[in-house]
Amino acid sequence: MPRYSRRSSDRLAIVQRAYAVNCDLCYWLATGRSLDGYLAQLGEDPVATRLVMLVREPMAPNVTMLGAILQRMIMDRVEEGLPLDDALSAVERQHRLATA
Description:
Blueprint: H1 8-30, H2 35-42, H3 46-55, H4 60-79, H5 84-99
Helix pairs in contact: 1-3, 1-4, 4-5
């Protein structure tokens, strides 16, 4: 994580990192994983950890909505005849491509 500075490239990197942490948090929680597990994935990144602690409550409705969307996407594929494991993998790939 770059240090805070006045350079626009540093600010852009900070915003991009914050966006990635936030998106990953929502996906992590929407797929039933624990907050502690996500914090462990961040390692020793105090800025990202603080961001997570600040946004977790306000992002709760987004986590719920994303979970419902992912479940619907999975069930659409299952109803089309795809085995559950394949449907899970397909939706995960699609989500990763959409958020890359």
